[in-house]
Amino acid sequence: MIRLSFYETDKIARLAGLADQTEVSNARNFNILNHPNVIKPFLKLKTGALPDGRMTVSIQDKCVITLSVANNCLDVRQTDEKPDYIVSHLEAMQLFFSPVSAFFLGVMEGNDFAESLFPIPIFVESNDQA
């Protein structure tokens, strides 16, 4: 068995012709408490240049964050600005980190900048498997 994270698209493409079975799954048991401190370093793991853009997201009962990219310099910070989008904590987890967010962004569907950022490659190998 070969396990790859969903953001390792080049490896997946090369191995797809060899595999007799594939499975797509997401990492489990994450609950993000400080969104800027988690989103920024994991977004830096994305391969390729990120397009310039900016969006502000309110995560209800948590915080409002701004994600911006200018000249491939990423910034994620908490803000008091008016949000472009309002999502619940669970919706934020799904939008930002779920492998299927690349196909269904809910309120952000059609936003090219969001489509370029999400899903954020968060992955930790399961501790229960040898």
Proportion of strand residues: 15-25%
Strand order of the largest sheet: 3-2-1-4
Helical/strand content category: alpha+beta
- Total of helices: 4
Number of strands: 4
Element-by-element helix/strand order = HHEEEEHH
Describe the 3D structure.
- The protein is an alpha+beta fold.
- It has a domain at 32-117: Nonspecific Lipid-transfer Protein, Chain A, CATH 3.30.1050.
- The chain is built from four helices and four strands.
- A four-stranded mixed sheet has the order 3-2-1-4.
- The radius of gyration is 16 Å and the shape is globular.
What would a concise description of this structure say?
The protein is an alpha+beta fold and 130 residues long. 25% of the residues lie in helices and 18% in strands. It has a domain at 32-117: Nonspecific Lipid-transfer Protein, Chain A (2-Layer Sandwich), CATH 3.30.1050.
